[in-house]
């Protein structure tokens, strides 16, 4: 069985929290698993899609707001991609 790197007690291999010292496993922060990052990316990507649709509808207008909304959608979509795909690929560490 693996050991907690902080208190050296044996823990289950699927454990995300050490029952003895309270250390938590995570990516970049305690408790932030790959699945949690993927769930947090959903509203960001949904909002990016809504902005893209707004931008496409306003492209026909003469004010140029459509391009602005498409750029914002692309930036937000890029952020959502990083949250959903890049961050979960980082290795998990133990935090206390």
How does this model look, in words?
A two-stranded antiparallel ribbon has the order 1-2. The protein has two helices and two strands. Helix 1 (34-58) runs antiparallel to helix 2. Helix content is 49%, strand content 6%. By secondary structure, it is mostly helical. The chain is rod-shaped, with a radius of gyration of 20 Å. It has helices at residues 34-58, 65-86, and strands at 24-26, 93-95. The longest helix is centred in the middle third of the chain and has 25 residues, at 34-58.
The strand line-up of the biggest sheet is 1-2
Parts with pLDDT < 50 across at least 5 consecutive residues: none
Query: How much of the polypeptide forms β-strand, as a percent range?
Result: 5-15%
Distance between the termini: 20 Å
Question: How is the secondary structure organized here?
Answer:
Layout: E1 24-26, H1 34-58, H2 65-86, E2 93-95
Antiparallel strand pairs: 1-2
Helix pairs in contact: 1-2
Give a short overview:
This protein is mainly α. Helices cover 49% and strands 6% of the residues. The chain has helices at 34-58, 65-86; strands at residues 24-26, 93-95.
Which tags fit this structure?
96 residues; mainly alpha; two-stranded antiparallel sheet; 2 helices; 2 strands; 49% helix
């Amino acid at each position: 069985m693996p050991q907690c790197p902080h208190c050296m007690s044996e823990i289950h291999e699927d454990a995300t929290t050490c029952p003895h010292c309270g250390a938590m496993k995570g990516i970049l922060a305690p408790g932030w698993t790959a699945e949690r990052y993927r769930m947090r990316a959903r509203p960001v990507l949904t909002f990016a899609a809504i902005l893209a649709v707004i931008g496409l509808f306003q492209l026909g207008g003469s004010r140029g707001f459509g391009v602005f909304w498409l750029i914002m959608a692309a930036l937000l979509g890029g952020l959502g991609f990083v949250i959903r795909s890049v961050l979960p690929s980082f290795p998990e560490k133990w935090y206390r």
